[in-house]
Amino acid sequence: MSQDEDIERASRSLKAMSHPLRLKILCILGDREVSVQEIVDQVGTSQSNISQHLGILRDKGILATRKDANRVYYRVGDSRTLRLIGMMQDVFCRS
Fold it and tell me: Lowest CB count within 10 Å: 11, 29, 76, 84, which one?
């Protein structure tokens, strides 16, 4: 992958993460695998709203999913993104 491709990918990822609700979801996920219902419970908005934002993060390659019966679990799919989220948690998610 060329430097330009890396920069494009970083730009797309950062743009996808730039919504406040998506940042909150990423702070909740961190390095864990979490069900959609757990995310809904912690964020405090509707499941359809959460699902829409999870879909954006998934489509941009930020999140990966796993289905288990009728539950869907999300996790950060790339170690580089996980490091970035860790830094964001240190700066923005800890009180």
Answer: 11
Q: At what angle do helices 20-29 and 3-17 cross, to 10 degrees?
A: 100
Query: Does residue 95 surpass a pLDDT of 80?
Result: no
Q: pTM for the complete prediction? A: 0.84
Query: Which residue has 């999870």 as its token pair?
Result: 54
Give residues with Cβ within 8 angstroms of 28, minimum separation 6: 34, 38, 39, 42, 43
Structure tokens given for 49? 């709203």
Domains of the chain in sequence order: 3-93 (1.10.10.10)
The pLDDT value recorded for residue 9 is 82
| Helix ranges (DSSP H) in 30-75 | 36-43, 47-59
